[in-house]
Amino acid sequence: MGTLKSHEKSKDAVADILKGKPADSDKLFSYFKVFMGDRGVAAITPSSRYLVRRVVKALDLEHARDVIEYGAAQGVMTRAILGKLHKDSKVLAIELNKNLFESLRDVSDPRLTVYNGDVREIDQLAPRFGMGSADVIFSGIPFAFLSPEDRHTLLKKTSHLLKPGGRFVAYQVTTHLIPLLKHHFKKVRIELEIRNLPPHFVFTAFK
Ligand SMILES: C[S@@+](CC[C@H](N)C(=O)[O-])C[C@H]1O[C@@H](n2cnc3c(N)ncnc32)[C@H](O)[C@@H]1O
After folding, report:
1. Distance 64 CA to ligand 1 centre (A)
2. Pairwise CA distance, residues 84 & 100, whole Å
3. In ligand 1, which atom is closest to the CA atom of 141?
4. Run of H or E residues at 26
5. Where in the chain is the domain with CATH 3.40.50.150?
6. Residue 158's pLDDT is what?
7. How deeply is 137 buried, as exposed, middle or buried, from its count of CB atoms within 10 A (0-12, 13-18, 19+)?
8. What is 49-206's CATH number?
9. N or C: which terminus of the chain carries fewer CB neighbours within 10 A?
């Protein structure tokens, strides 16, 4: 619980910075500590409300029932999508970092299943949790830290898991994923959200 409170404080600190207010260093410390201990976390703070809003819009959740989240961390995006999803929907949220996963477990919703593991095994994990296919998959994991082969394989597995007409949304710091997304998906939409530390691209890839 203490960890979750600290993460929420970190988010408030980012909001303060974006409003031009001085940041409370204590607020930023907790997420930053996890970031320092695990480079795979990739961002020094949780996503800002602006990035969350942009990603949620890109997901187009109105008709989505089966949703998978890669790299949920402490659940900033998870909470936001649960607020928008239908009562009969299902969400599988996966997080690799043990400390962040402990905070994710505090997100309480009967539609949500959380798992501490590696999304590179999504082809085995999804069916295990009753998610044979998905309407929407979205991801904050830093693809740049994966090997080229793992990037390719994960996108192939992701596209395979999506229902026809489904979408994959990835928020990333760099543009390196664009050619790979174009290879694995029919169409890719590119947006930039600058009101986040650091600014993120939001890629929406359509199956
Ligand atoms: C940039 S953070 C995004 C966190 C959160 N979704 C947000 O919007 O604030 C990326 C997250 O992906 C997780 N991650 C990185 N590689 C992963 C993997 N292979 N499987 C599952 N999670 C992973 C990291 O531990 C980290 O929590």
Report:
1. 22
2. 23
3. 12
4. helix 25-37
5. 49-206
6. 98
7. buried
8. 3.40.50.150
9. N
Residue whose token pair is 């999504």 = 122
Please write down the long-range contacts of 90-96, taking CB distance under 8 Å and 24 or more positions apart.
Answer: 90/65, 90/66, 90/130, 90/131, 91/67, 92/67, 92/68, 92/125, 92/126, 92/129, 92/131, 93/68, 93/69, 94/68, 94/69, 94/70, 94/118, 94/119, 94/122, 94/125, 95/71, 96/40, 96/71, 96/141
Instruction: Please check whether residue 103 is in contact with residue 4, taking contact to mean a CB–CB distance below 8 angstroms.
Output: yes
Q: Which of 11, 50, 70 to mutate to test the pocket of ligand 1 (most atoms within 8 A of CB)?
A: 70
The mean pLDDT values, 10 residues at a time, for the chain of 207 residues are: 46 47 46 57 78 97 96 96 97 95 95 98 97 97 94 98 97 94 97 93 97
Query: Half-sphere exposure of residue 117, counting CA atoms within 13 Å on the CB side?
Result: 15
